[in-house]
Each structure stands twice: as structure tokens, then as C-alpha cells.
Write a structure and sequence with these properties.
The complex is a heterodimer.
Chain A (H helix, E strand, L loop, with lengths): L2 E12 L2 E12 L3 E5 L6 H9 L6 E6 L2 E2 L9 E2 L11 H11 L4 H14 L16 H14 L5 E4 L7 H18 L3 E5 L2 H7 L2 E5 L6 E6 L11 H14 L3
Parallel strand pairs in A: 3-8, 3-9, 6-7, 7-8
Antiparallel strand pairs in A: 1-2, 1-4, 4-5, 9-10
Helix pairs in contact in A: 2-3, 2-4, 3-4, 6-7
Chain B lengths: L4 H27 L11 H10 L1 H35 L1 H14 L8 H8 L3 H25 L3 H9 L4 H39 L4 H10 L3 H29 L4
Helix pairs in contact in B: 2-10, 3-4, 3-6, 3-8, 3-9, 5-6, 6-8, 7-8, 8-9, 8-10, 9-10
The chains are: A alpha/beta, B mainly alpha.
């Protein structure tokens, strides 16, 4: 198992408020790794630290063996509130990361077209502006845009929290297909336990603030998973138990 | 608001009818001698100015437009350029904040005496006054536009590998574009006011000069014709700019 992300005894506080209290875990290359925790526990902070958008006080964060010192496309992120550029068309949004990596327009467009094939449902919308898209479509664009960066690890911060339940299930299934097709390492932060169990190889459960690791649960079920399968329900209940939600 | 077809017709009638009625009343008041026709010439006589001296009106209008073009272009380049710097970099803001805040409340007209001493009577003095007038709305709108770009887009761009230059070009400037265009449009309007003021005092040509000269010989018809020309050209510039805004901001 090749390790792509290594977090060691990570601590972070805002002024006197301790948020992350010594987290240590590893994520393997190609793994789908989910992080769940009660809201406000610091799971988004953890993701933002890995993304290099926030600094930390103690510990180490290594991506592919290299210390994280700032933001970068090797850790492309899908934000909760989409964050796709409203002044760029769908295609231009997806071409952004390749262009930033110094690719010429032709190559950037080739990569973007490939992403449009991997992420379904965007055909015919290449030249549309985000305002013309629904929430689910915007998040598809955000996923395609992040994939185009060809990241070592794809970071997702509650990506489906803002869409309705039906769209959420559909997007989860699509994301699973993207993962299967690309072999992309994915780190997903969510407060939705069912989502984590449906998608991930392993689910890391965090305690309320200051966040500590309660457990890392292996989800050894074949995909596509059945949300009503007794084994699925059992794992979901176990995690909910750890979160103290029952 | 939902308008019935009949309401629309009433609206149109009002839009055309009220100005026509005002013109008619004005003509009548002036013709019947209810007002001194030297001080208030009838609109028909004002209109005749455009027929009898079209060259004079046109020449002066072109002169004024040329001055606005030069002074405004300088203000646009410098206002947007400095605005981007000040909006993006804290150090630039610290450096310029006090200077700008001190200069901003001085009305552009108050610069005219100094402009005459520095540049003499003529084009450069007018360029300067227009520049001063147009610069501040352009600069200030650019700064606030840049600073109001949602943080999340900046983070997304950095996350995807943008450097400073790319961040400005792909995120800050397009995100601030609605505000920048508002500044450019307001600046154009103020520049147009400034050219008229500057020409009344610091020039020997242009629409401002034309109406102040006409006033000296009591040619009120020419004064009003000049005023109308200024108004119509100002309106056309504003409309033209709004159309441009609509095109550039299709994404909104």
C-alpha cells in the first residue's frame, strides 16, 4: 500500500480555542477516505490545512512525502458552495487548472473535454455560464474542474450538502463512477454518515471539538452498495453510535 | 409590475405627451410675451440654431468630446490600474490611502485656477480637470470591487495553482468588473460635466466656451442649444456605456 497522505500528530488552535487535538492517520493511493464528525468539530479545518489554505501549530502534513506549505493543484478541492467562477463558462472553469499549470490552450481544452466525459451530465453545457446551472450541475462542474488539475489527492468539503436529497444520491453514484474510472485518491469530509458509508473504503470518525480520532472504520462491502443492506445499516449505526447521535 | 396592454399605451402616450406639452407651453409663454423672449426664447428659435449654425455646434461638440476622450482615457487607465493595486495589495493601500482620502473631497472645479496657472488656457488644462473629475469614481469603484470579490473564488484559484498575476487577471478583475464598469460610467458622466466647467473658464473653444460666449452677447437661443447638445451627448454616452456593460457582464 502506497501512502499518499500522511498526517502526524496534527494540532491546531484558534487563539485559545483548541480545534484539532493531535490527529494521526494515513491515506493510501487510490483510496476513497471519508471523514465524519459532528458539525463544528474541525473537520473542515483539517481539510483546509491539507489544502494549504490554513496553517497549523504542531505536527506534520505530508502529501506524497512532501510537507504541505501552501495551496496547490496537487490537492485540488471541491468546495461546499461550489466556488466555480461565475464569469467563466463551464469549459473555461474546467480549463483553469491546466492553464495555471502552464499547459497551452489546446492541451488544456483536451484535458477539460476528458473531464467532461468522466463527469456525466454536462454535455451541451460547455459554453453555459454557472448562473444557468442548477446546484447539482454546478457541483458537477466543480468536480470536473478539480479533476482537471490531476491532483494527487482530491479534497471534497461537504460537496453535496447544499443539494436536495434526490440529487445528492445521484451525485454520490456519479462520484463513485468517477472514482472507479480514474483511480483518483479522494478525501471526503461530510457530516452525512450514510454518504460516507456509501462511498468510502474507510471512514474516520472525529470527536466533538477539540477533534480527536474516535476510530477509523473499514467499510468492507462490495460496490455499488445497497443502503438498506443489513451490513450497511449496521456499519452506519456503529458510526452514529460513536458520534453519540443515538 | 404587470401591465395590461391598455396601460402600456397610456404609458407611451405619457412618455411622448408630457415633454411635447412642456415644449408647447414653453413656445406659447414665449410667443405671447408672458416671459421676456430675450431671456426665454421659444423652443422653435432654439431649434433654429442647429439649422443656421450647425458647423459651430458640431465643431465645439467635437472639441469637447476630444478633450473628454483624452482626460477620461488617462483617468481610466490610471484609475483602474491603481485601483487594482490598492485593492489587491495592503502595502499599496497603506501607501496611497491618506493621499487619496485628502484629495478626494476637493471638487474638480476647485482645481481650475491651479490648472490654468500650470497649463495655461487650452486643452491641457481641460484634460487635467477632466482627469481629476473622472479619476476618483473610477479608482474608488475599482478598489471596492476588487476588495469585495468573494474570498472563496480567491481560495479556489490559489488551490488550482494560480499565482498573483493569474489571480488578478482571472479572478479579481473579472469579479470586480461590475463595479469597475460602474466606476467607468460614473467617471464618464463626471468627466463630461468637468469639460463644460473647464471650458467656461479655462478654454477658448468647446461647448462650455460656446454657451458662456453666447451669454455675453445675450444669445440665449444659442445658450440653450448648447445646453441641449451637452445634455443629449451626455445621455448618449451613458446609454452607450450601459449597453457595453450588458455585453461584458453576460455572465451575471
Amino acid at each position: 500500500m502506497e501512502v499518499i497522505l500522511e498526517v502526524e500528530d496534527l494540532r491546531k488552535s484558534y487563539d485559545d480555542l483548541l480545534v484539532l487535538n493531535g490527529l494521526t492517520f494515513k491515506v493510501a493511493k487510490g483510496e476513497f477516505f471519508a471523514i465524519v464528525g459532528p458539525s463544528g468539530c474541525g473537520k473542515t479545518t483539517l481539510l483546509r490545512i491539507i489544502a494549504g489554505l490554513e496553517d497549523y501549530d504542531e505536527g506534520r502534513v505530508l502529501v506524497d512525502g512532501k510537507e504541505v506549505t501552501g495551496p496547490g493543484p496537487d490537492r485540488a478541492m471541491v468546495f461546499q458552495d461550489y466556488a466555480i467562477f461565475p464569469w467563466k463558462t463551464v469549459l473555461e472553469n474546467i480549463m483553469f487548472a491546466p492553464l495555471m499549470q502552464g499547459k497551452d490552450r489546446e492541451e488544456a481544452e483536451r484535458i477539460a473535454r476528458w473531464c467532461l466525459e468522466v463527469v456525466p451530465g454536462l454535455e451541451g453545457f460547455e459554453d453555459a455560464y454557472p448562473k444557468q446551472l442548477s446546484g447539482g450541475m454546478k457541483q458537477r462542474v466543480a468536480i470536473a474542474r478539480a479533476l482537471a488539475a490531476k491532483p494527487k489527492i482530491l479534497l471534497m468539503d461537504e460537496p453535496f450538502a447544499a443539494v436536495d436529497a434526490q440529487t445528492r444520491n445521484k451525485l454520490q453514484e456519479e462520484l463513485l463512477k468517477v472514482w472507479e474510472k480514474t483511480g483518483q485518491t479522494i478525501l471526503l469530509v461530510t457530516h452525512n454518515v450514510e454518504e460516507a458509508v456509501f462511498l468510502a473504503d474507510r471512514v474516520m470518525v472525529l470527536s466533538p471539538r477539540p477533534a480527536e480520532i474516535v476510530d477509523i472504520v473499514e467499510v468492507d462491502l462490495p460496490r455499488p452498495r445497497d443502503r438498506t443492506d443489513p451490513e450497511f445499516v449496521k456499519i452506519r449505526a456503529e458510526i452514529l453510535e460513536m458520534l453519540g447521535a443515538r | 409590475m404587470i401591465l395590461e396592454e391598455a396601460d402600456r399605451r397610456i404609458e407611451l402616450a405619457l412618455k411622448v405627451g408630457v415633454p411635447a406639452a412642456i415644449l408647447g407651453l414653453w413656445e406659447l409663454v414665449s410667443r405671447l410675451g408672458l416671459a421676456n423672449p430675450v431671456l426665454l426664447p421659444p423652443p422653435s428659435r432654439v431649434f433654429m440654431v442647429f439649422v443656421t449654425h450647425p458647423g459651430e455646434v458640431l465643431r465645439n461638440a467635437v472639441t469637447s468630446l476630444y478633450r473628454v476622450l483624452v482626460g477620461y482615457s488617462l483617468a481610466a487607465v490610471l484609475g483602474v490600474g491603481l485601483g487594482i493595486l490598492v485593492g489587491t495589495y495592503r502595502t499599496a493601500r497603506s501607501a496611497l490611502d491618506v493621499v487619496i482620502e485628502l484629495l478626494r473631497p476637493i471638487p474638480p472645479i476647485a482645481w481650475i485656477p491651479l490648472a490654468i496657472l500650470w497649463f495655461g488656457i487650452g486643452d491641457p488644462a481641460a484634460f487635467f480637470i477632466i482627469f481629476i473629475g473622472a479619476f476618483f469614481p473610477i479608482f474608488l469603484n475599482t478598489v471596492s470591487g476588487i476588495r469585495n470579490v468573494d474570498r472563496v473564488y480567491v481560495e479556489a484559484a490559489l488551490n488550482l495553482g494560480a499565482d498573483d498575476a493569474a489571480l488578478i487577471r482571472h479572478v479579481l478583475v473579472p469579479g470586480a468588473m461590475p463595479s469597475i464598469l460602474t466606476g467607468l460610467r460614473v467617471g464618464l458622466g463626471i468627466g463630461w460635466m468637468c469639460v463644460v466647467a473647464a471650458e467656461m473658464i479655462a478654454a477658448k473653444s468647446g461647448l462650455g466656451y460656446m454657451i458662456i460666449e453666447a451669454q455675453r452677447v445675450l444669445a440665449t437661443d444659442e445658450v440653450i442649444a448648447g445646453m441641449l447638445t451637452i445634455g443629449v451627448l451626455g445621455l448618449l454616452m451613458d446609454r452607450g456605456f450601459r449597453a457595453l456593460e450588458g455585453r461584458l457582464l453576460r455572465w451575471r
